[in-house]
Specification:
CATH topology of the largest domain: outer membrane lipoprotein receptor (LolB), chain A
Structural class: alpha+beta
Number of strands: 19
CATH architecture of the largest domain: Clam
Number of helices: 7
Number of domains: 2
Helix content: 10-25%
Strand content: 25-35%
Length: 456
């Protein structure tokens, strides 16, 4: 009787509008329970408007509903695509997955390349490490298919406060006149560029023992540079992270602050702080970019949500009363739901975070975090552009240095985070994606700590 009542109440809840202030972990979990048996009342080719928005509520997480669903909404439904990774990744998975192990502390062992763990065997947990699948799920996400890694010519860190109107003329490059539609006030726009390059666990380098050649690759999973070009007061600011192949070894991280004219090391705590005043943190990159062993993980279960895994536009477009909603084509996708618990960090700003990762292609499509009082704080919607689509090669910042068709990889169209507590979002539309292999001589220059101050 009790289970029947809960299921009925949850089903009723997802059919009704939910205010942001009413959303808590229990609401999200109830929505997930009801989502399991929900039947889509839409099909590919439909355009959902506000009048029939109840058709999609069962497939939009409650914390995101007030952003996506509004009077004037236009949600185009697309076919659910096969976005499985490249053959090299699938082959590495078949060859090496059987030998991978999860240690008692949650560390991954015997990993070579490909997907570490068989996600078809995951089962929900009531607590972290009950069966280890939360840790297995986050390791699968960490080692999803990313080829050599992403080089990004331009991202815009766009602050958008709710209400009011905006004028972005002169703040972004020409050709993006319809990027920021709708309302919202834009107090600040940051410009930057980004590089992450993988040196080990490379499924595309089976003939090189799955690693780049040279001593620079020894013990290195990846190096990552986030650099800011505009506006003038942050020009030259850059962050460099070195992630080691040893899962128990802490990152080496540095920041260059032009006003101080010096490079400084970054602590674990800094990586969970606001990134230059935005609503994003370094640890929030990709949905989660921290070290798995600095957190506890619980596998919550699965959910079907509407997501943008292959944009129909060459650049992101936003609309809605606050300019926070993504205007694009949405697909119904099967997602793993993982709970991140920063239990080992009492000063971490989040009490918990739910991360939704696509079962077919591995990337994060949505996330939501809660503050130390367990009240809803931020929601992320990460839209993608697909390497096999023509729009990937029509981006205004230029095409990649080589054709990526066959690479079967999804790059960021936009990384969008909304702070529900202070009524502000930070939108990161991205341009100029390149996954082409870079020469080691170039990487040694760009991804070396000396470059932070000397090469900029």
């Amino acid at each position: 009787m009790r289970k029947s009542f809960i299921a009925t109440a949850a089903a009723l809840a997802i059919a009704l509008p939910i205010t942001a202030s009413a959303v808590g972990p229990d609401v999200t979990l109830d929505w997930m329970a009801a989502n399991q048996s929900a039947t889509p009342e839409f099909k590919a080719g439909d355009v959902i408007t506000y009048a029939d928005s109840d058709k999609i509520r069962a497939f939009v997480p409650p914390a995101y509903q007030d952003i996506m669903i509004f009077d004037g909404m236009q949600v185009e439904i697309g076919e659910t695509s096969d976005l499985s990774p490249a053959d090299a990744y699938k082959q590495a998975t078949l060859q090496h997955q059987g030998q991978v192990r999860l240690a008692e502390d949650g560390a991954i062992e015997n990993f070579v390349a490909g997907q570490p763990f068989d996600d078809s065997k995951f089962s929900p947990e009531s607590a972290p490490m009950e069966n280890g699948d939360g840790y297995r799920a986050i390791w699968n996400f960490n080692f999803r298919w990313q080829a050599q890694g992403l080089a990004l010519t331009r991202f815009y860190g766009t602050w958008v406060r709710e209400g009011g109107q905006h004028d972005t003329s002169g703040q972004i490059e020409k050709g993006y006149d319809d990027m920021f539609q709708g309302g919202g006030t834009f107090p600040r726009i940051l410009w930057g560029n980004y590089v992450r390059s993988y040196f080990n666990f490379r499924a595309d380098l089976a003939d090189q023992d799955y690693r780049m050649k040279g001593s620079w690759a020894d013990g290195t999973e990846y190096r990552e540079l986030t650099a800011f070009d505009e506006p003038f007061d942050i020009r030259g600011t850059a962050f460099l992270i070195l992630r080691y192949t040893d899962p128990r070894k802490t990152d080496d991280s540095w920041a260059y602050i032009p006003n101080l004219r010096r490079v400084r090391r970054i602590s674990v705590e800094v990586k969970s702080d606001s990134l230059l005043g935005t609503d994003h943190t370094i640890e929030d990159f990709y949905g989660f970019a921290g070290r798995p062993l600095e957190h506890e993980w619980r596998y919550v279960g699965s959910a079907r949500i509407l997501w943008i895994p292959r944009s129909k536009f060459p650049y992101a477009k936003y609309y809605g009363p606050n300019g926070w909603a993504s205007l694009d084509r949405w697909e119904l996708r099967d997602m793993h739901v993982i709970e991140q618990l920063p239990s080992f960090q009492p000063d971490h700003p989040y009490n918990r975070k739910y991360i939704f990762t696509d079962k077919n292609m591995g990337d994060c499509g949505y996330a939501e975090s809660y503050d130390r009082a367990d009240e809803l704080w931020k929601v992320w919607q990460l839209s993608k552009i697909w390497s096999e689509d023509e729009v990937f090669y029509q981006q205004h910042q230029g095409t990649p240095s080589q054709d990526h068709r066959g690479l079967r990889i999804a790059a960021f169209a936009g990384i969008n985070v909304i702070d529900k507590q202070n009524g502000r979002g930070t939108l990161f539309p991205c341009q100029g994606h390149n996954y082409a292999p870079q020469k080691l001589s170039y990487l040694k220059k760009v991804l070396d700590v000396n470059y932070l101050s000397q090469g900029r």
